[in-house]
Amino acid sequence: MIRVLIAEDQSLVLGALAALLKLEHDLDVVGQARNGQEALALCEQLQPDIVLTDIEMPLMTGLELAAVLAERGAAARVIIVTTFARSGYLRRAMAAGVRGYLLKDAPSESLAAAIRSVHAGGRAIAPELALESWSGGEDPLSERERQVLRLAGEGRTGADIAKQLSLSEGTVRNYLSEAISKLNAGNRVEAFRLAREAGWL
């Protein structure tokens, strides 16, 4: 049996994915998480073969989860299942060691096939995304600029961001200014929108 952990913050989607995979004779859904941090804790506890995760989740994104699992040398292989067909996301996913990247509107049988393929050591990338990744621009943001811009886009103040990331408010302003400049944006709101649309957040 292939042991699968699902991380998805939308309860309906989480339940649907679990129900779908439980119909497969060789797949065992061993755990379900509603955010990246919960998924990370369950990975340590349950040791799944496959982690099926969304990208945008509270506390820790699916891409951040994949990166931490890779850093820790976890045996679990990660497959992203998302609504976002953005080349920036795919490139970041590949850099984080993700083995599969599928869209949520893909046929249900392709999900089970992707899990089996990745478990066997292969990759599973939605064809339309593979093509898209060659045409997208390079991500200009540093990891710290990305963190600061994401929090600013969520409406956090400079003081809030500084406290959360253990930085000074001046450093936060500098990171925001750099991100705005790199994206040729007029302000932090526009920078957040541009980066999000490109898949860089």
Automatic annotation (TrEMBL):
GO BP of this protein: phosphorelay signal transduction system; regulation of DNA-templated transcription
A GO molecular-function term, please?
DNA binding
Q: Which parts of the sequence belong to the Response regulatory domain?
A: 3-119
**Which protein are we looking at?**
Response regulator
Residues bearing PTM 4-aspartylphosphate: D54
**Keywords from the UniProt entry:** DNA-binding, Phosphoprotein
Q: Where is the HTH luxR-type domain?
A: 134-199
